Amino acid sequence: MSCSVYATLSRISLGTVITIHAGTTPNHTGRFLGIEHGNVVLASNNTVFFFPVDRISVIHIP
């Protein structure tokens, strides 16, 4: 698990809109719902997405 990504995520509030950059995959934007079993949980367009923390390279908080 990336310490800097995890540290950033642990400091933001639930419901904050974030954009996740994970290498070559498209960027994903949604409301931060927390971290569950090493995955970042995002809600976007009535869908919940799970992204492994260790695959995230950058988090953008507008």
Tell the overall outline: globular
Mean pLDDT: 89
Model regions low in confidence, pLDDT < 50 over at least 5 residues: none
Strand and helix order: HEEEEE
Structural Rg: 10 Å
Q: How many angstroms does the end-to-end distance come to?
A: 24 Å
Main β-sheet, spatial strand arrangement: 4-3-2-1-5
Share of residues in helices:
10-25%
Tally of DSSP helical segments: 1
| Sheet of most strands | 5 strands, antiparallel
Secondary structural class:
mainly beta
Range of strand content: over 45%
For the secondary structure, the number of strands is: 5
Organism: Paenibacillus violae
Protein name: DUF2642 domain-containing protein
Question: Can you lay out the helices and strands and say which pair or pack?
Answer:
Elements: H1 3-11, E1 17-21, E2 28-36, E3 39-44, E4 47-52, E5 58-60
Antiparallel strand pairs: 1-2, 1-5, 2-3, 3-4
Task: Name its key features.
1 helix; 5 strands; 15% helix; mainly beta; 62 residues
Describe this structure in words.
It is a single chain. With 62 residues, the protein is mostly beta strands. It has one helix at residues 3-11; strands at 17-21, 28-36, 39-44, 47-52, 58-60. The model has no long low-confidence stretch (mean pLDDT 89).
Question: What is this entry, summarized?
Answer:
This protein has 62 residues and is mainly beta. 15% of the residues lie in helices and 47% in strands. Strand 3 and strand 4 form a beta hairpin.
